[in-house]
Amino acid sequence: MNKGELVDQVHQKTGITKKQVDSVIAATIETIMDSVAEGDKVTLVGFGSFEPRDRKAREGRNPKTGEKMEIKATRIPAFSAGKLFKDQVSSETE
Which of 5, 36, 73, 82 has CB 3.0 to 4.6 Å from 1, enough for a Cys bridge? Predict the structure, then answer.
């Protein structure tokens, strides 16, 4: 599902105009991204949590040449699914 399909689904479930749904989804995503970028954890109960995680510097290899190289430490966004989300996905495969 892409963003357009998500907008259509929310529109059908709520009756809100597609333009309003698109604005709300865009604002939600932007707010989550801004909060995580600032170092905060965003928890949506039942759905999951978004948080920044620090990766330590490590040694890697250049895939073309095979020579060793240093990979810098960095901060990455991470998502952990909530229990309700996990349960729903696992019940769909049974």
Answer: 5
